[in-house]
């Protein structure tokens, strides 16, 4: 099969930039669409973008979890309504679409890792808009997959890993929550898998995260040991950090479905994070 021409929506964001890079490395003819020239809410922008390609990766999103509590309408337009328009146009043009979603569609109350068949129940506005996007997409009946990811970090964009590294340079004490569990996942890892999905164009829903489960406190401890900066790390609870949006305490994903589909294991979070810290 010839490699499809690919559009990366939100291709200048943290994930999108790594996806665009990986697609080019893997020989896909790749076009990046992002603000300010491309607005995913604009139907004619979407139509123009989809005319040029055979496959679309949607990394565009409203991603400020706390601000989404007050800018809910804007988040809904980008994360839900625009995804519906995108699916409708993809249906007309018969374009395969990979839509990126999130662990925040779950409430985090389950005692085990979440699998694709678990019922979503978002506990904040951002999660609600992302879930609505998934549901709208299903209604369009286009050829699509959803890939839910979690706790991502990359070179561009703000993320937990960069925050810990930066704060360790100026602060002697760092408070980090030890009651949120998940898997820190490099956007470079996600991008590699997206390239493999592009080769197969499945129509399914997948959970993807780095291998292994860990608390945010343990990640911070790992980072500080690796960069060798002596900081007094203090474990605390999510409730000690009041924030506008509630956070799910369990973000762990069961990833056996994507492992079976790709017929390969997933790299452990520690190896990927160590490589990232070297680059940083
Ligand atoms: N970061 C995480 O930990 C995480 C976890 C789970 C899932 N995800 C999902 O991963 C995907 C990628 O997110 P990310 O982490 O790469 O966030 P990001 O860096 O904020 O990327 C989102 C991109 O979408 C663009 N965008 C926003 N509004 C747009 C609009 N109206 N039209 C076109 N583009 C628009 C943003 O542009 P501006 O920067 O100019 O606004 C940005 O380039 C999202 O679906 C997100 O929900 C992220």
Any chance you could write out the topology, listing elements then pairs?
Layout: E1 6-9, H1 14-25, E2 30-33, H2 43-51, E3 55-58, H3 72-93, E4 96-102, H4 125-140, E5 144-149, E6 152-153, H5 160-170, E7 173-177, E8 181-182, E9 185-186, H6 187-200, E10 205-207, E11 214-215, H7 216-227, E12 232-236, H8 256-262, H9 269-279
Parallel strand pairs: 1-2, 1-3, 3-4, 4-5, 5-10, 6-9, 7-12
Antiparallel strand pairs: 8-11
Bound molecules: NADP nicotinamide-adenine-dinucleotide phosphate.
Report what the structure shows.
Helix 1 (14-25) crosses helix 6 (187-200) and helix 5 (160-170) packs across helix 7. The protein has one domain (6-159, 183-213, 253-270): 3-Layer(aba) Sandwich (Rossmann fold), CATH 3.40.50.720. Strands 2-1-3-4-5-10 form a six-stranded parallel sheet, sandwiched between helices. It has helices spanning 14-25, 43-51, 72-93, 125-140, 160-170, 187-200, 216-227, 256-262, 269-279; strands at 6-9, 30-33, 55-58, 96-102, 144-149, 152-153, 173-177, 181-182, 185-186, 205-207, 214-215, 232-236. The two termini are 37 Å apart. The model has no long low-confidence stretch (mean pLDDT 97). 41% of the residues lie in helices and 16% in strands. By secondary structure, the chain is an alpha/beta fold. The chain is globular. NADP nicotinamide-adenine-dinucleotide phosphate is lined by residues 10, 12-16, 34-35, 38-41, 59-63, 78, 100, 102-103, 130, 149-152, 157. NADP nicotinamide-adenine-dinucleotide phosphate (NAP) binds at residues 10, 12-16, 34-35, 38-41, 59-63, 78, 100, 102-103, 130, 149-152, 157.
